[in-house]
Amino acid sequence: MRKAADIEITSLKYADDGMIPNNASCPLLHYKNVIEEHDDTEKILSANNWRGIWQGGVAPYHHYHGITHEVIVIDSGTATLHLGGEEGTKVNVRAGDAVIIPAGFGHKNIESSPDFSVFGAYLDGKEYDFCYGKKEEREEKLKNIRKVPMPDKDPVFGIDGPLFKYWQDV
Length: 170
Fold this sequence. Notes:
Helices cover 14% and strands 31% of the residues.
């Protein structure tokens, strides 16, 4: 694993677009080229209390999670993700990158290489939900997002990780 001081971090923040609420307090963080090939991603995430680890892809439709923050670590391949809902940004990710997705922040896989695979995990192993921006779910989901706590540890770097420089208002 590379040192936090040696990686490039992109911070993305978008307003609520009426469908995807995003997150008023926490930006999405993209840690570029942070995990090295020999690193044990599952061990790193577990040690930092990001659990419920799964391996797979990213859904090909806009969605968000209303009851937990999520981290995805790109294990192999490349992808273009649409982050922040329809008004958001298309971001290229590749093996070794980590994306920390705050509760409420929209994400979608637009295109990926055949070998694209991620490890995903949730804060404290919390159960997750899939939210799609439907009107009938909105009021409840907005309340839930406000209740999601600040992590005790950055999913990659632990207690002293850069996440805390960006997520100060939670």
